[in-house]
Amino acid sequence: MVILEKIMEFINIIIMIVTCKIFYIPFFTWFIAQTLKVIIYVITKHKFDFRLFVGTGGMPSSHTAAVTAGTTTIGMTAGWTSPVFMVCLLYCIVVISDAVGVRRAAGKQAQVLNKIVDELEHSEFKSDRLKEFLGHTPFEAFVGIVIGILIPNLMY
């Protein structure tokens, strides 16, 4: 009987999480941004790549959209001057800075390393290719910010 109660308590917690605006609005925003990323890729490259739906990099930045949506939703819920909004805003700035700075730089370094590996292809040196599609351009992040502000305002 105790196990059944614990299972029911766990299910209730999950239901509370997925029905909370602070969870489902940013999640839906992330989903929309990832879907747009795949659609834009299909339109521009004329091919479908499912990995874009679950991967990083590309237009728009879904990480940026999700954290901006979370920050916007918290601001609308708790107030624009609340301490929890300020913490979310700081987190949002860190995530966007990481997407545009560190992850983009890592992607550029992966491109260079992959070129070196390609040039060494005829030697005994063998290596797997590194993922180059990591970060975002400032414009991709900006579009993520716009999506992250727009969708919560439409859904709230």
Description:
By secondary structure, the protein is mostly helical. The chain has one domain. The protein is 75% helix and 0% strand. The protein contains seven helices and no strands. The protein has helices spanning 2-18, 21-45, 51-54, 62-78, 83-100, 102-119, 138-155.
Q: What's the structural blueprint in terms of helices and strands?
A:
Elements lengths: L1 H17 L2 H25 L5 H4 L7 H17 L4 H18 L1 H18 L18 H18 L1
User: What pattern of helices and strands is seen along the backbone?
Assistant: HHHHHHH
What fraction, in percent, of the residue positions are helical? over 70%
Instruction: Give the count of structural domains.
Output: 1
Low-confidence stretches: none
What oligomeric state is this? Answer: single chain
Gross morphology is globular
Distance between the termini: 40 Å
Question: DSSP helix count?
Answer: 7
Beta-strand residue fraction: under 5%
What can be said about the biggest beta sheet? none
Helix-and-strand structural type? mainly alpha
Q: How confident is the prediction overall: mean pLDDT?
A: 84
CA gyration radius, whole angstroms: 20 Å
Number of strands: 0
